[in-house]
Amino acid sequence: MTTILILFVFMNLDTILKTGHCTDTRDQVLSITPTTQKQVDILKNVSSHYETALWQPVSPEYIKEETQVHLFVPGNSSGIIKNLLRTHGITHEYAIYDWINRTTHDNPDTVKLILVGSSYEKRPLYALKLSLNNRPNKKAMWIDCGIHAREWVAPAFCLWFVHHSLSFYKVNKDITHILDNLDVYVLPVLNPDGYKYTWTKNRMWRKNRSQNNANNCIGVDLNRNFDANWCTEGASHDPCSEIYCGSFPESEPESQAVADFLRSNKDLVQLYLSIHSYSQMLLFPYSCTLEEAENHSDLLEMAQEAAQAIRRYYRNTYSYGPGGKTIYLAPGGSDDWAYNLGIKYSFTFELQDRGRYGFLLPTSHISRACNEALIAVKIIALKVIEKTQAATSSPQTV
């Protein structure tokens, strides 16, 4: 069967601008590289005779083999187009780089593209810096998504959070206050190699795709690879294990890239958020030990308020607490490492659901998952701003 990989990005355009909510009707950007003349002919027909917009090349006549095609498909046409492509044996996978590039291009004054590093298979690790004003001495928050490949709803939230922030700055008072006081760094996919693998080979893949020279087992659990009680109880030295910690802390280029960036910016970043799925939990340090964090009461207060707001507005229950006591011991996690670095407000969100669908969360659930995570991010970010500003402005005693 002839196959084209269609890299598409979900963008909630008109609906987000009008309502601020995720929906199931999405415009899509298809990035397609035809490899045969038959595929070229199909794409020419689709771009000429259906409700689409050809972004690249400028005209269907320039579509040719081994040349990338970018096709915008409005949400009301996506089903017809995808069925047509499927009929001709054309498969697709979810991708994010085109969306990242276009968001940066369309918002040159407020969005900066930062190359944090690269993956094992040399895919770029791009973070978007949202800076909505030039206030001096601004602090920052960091959000990363997709450290575990199969947790698809996590990257979806990161992209949606960026779009929501850009759309509702100066419209929604909470997001405006957050962006007035904090720059935001968003890394949509921390594990791009594993993420691609879940679209092409194994939907349930968790780790990255690094090769172990000692045996045939592939991959390291990147959330066991940070230097926080590395490879103690809750991680494994076995390269074939799903929770393999790697050969040493930060042995993987993905975890090292994030750690290097945060080390370089530790005086700026006040809030660290890592987005996962599933189980509906708001977790904070520690996960690598049963000891309590120094500011346990602050972290507990924030997580509790966020969980209560989710319960109030969306009638959904999120557990909360330190990771090691709330779920299980998980040494080498990014949130514990960030906390030990000095980022004293550090959280891991586990989004929907509680196990009915698990990693296979249906599209119909994405809207609520996005909005639940957003309200938690807002509450915690606002609390961090309040507490850090109060600490800065409090009078010094002699």
Compact overview of the structure:
The protein has about 400 residues and is α/β, with parallel strands linked by helices. It has twelve helices and 13 strands.
Explain what the structure shows.
- The protein is of the alpha/beta class.
- It has two domains: 6-95, Alpha-Beta Plaits (2-Layer Sandwich), CATH 3.30.70.340; 100-393, Aminopeptidase (3-Layer(aba) Sandwich), CATH 3.40.630.10.
- The chain has twelve helices and 13 strands.
- The protein has helices at 13-19, 37-49, 75-87, 97-106, 153-168, 173-181, 192-200, 253-264, 296-314, 323-326, 334-341, 366-393; strands spanning 6-11, 27-32, 53-56, 69-73, 92-94, 111-118, 124-130, 139-145, 182-187, 269-277, 281-284, 319-322, 345-351.
- An eight-stranded mixed beta sheet has the order 6-7-9-8-10-13-11-12, sandwiched between helices. A five-stranded mixed beta sheet has the order 3-4-2-1-5.
- It is globular, with a radius of gyration of 21 Å.
- It starts with 5 loop residues before the first strand and ends in a 5-residue tail after the last helix.
- The relative contact order is 0.12.
- The model is unreliable at 1-25 (pLDDT under 50).
- This is (Atlantic silverside) hypothetical protein.
- InterPro entries: CARBOXYPEPT_ZN_1, CARBOXYPEPT_ZN_2, CPB2, M14A-like_propep, Peptidase_M14.
- One of its GO terms (biological process) is fibrinolysis.
- Residues 89-384 form the Peptidase M14 domain.
- One of its GO terms (cellular component) is extracellular space.
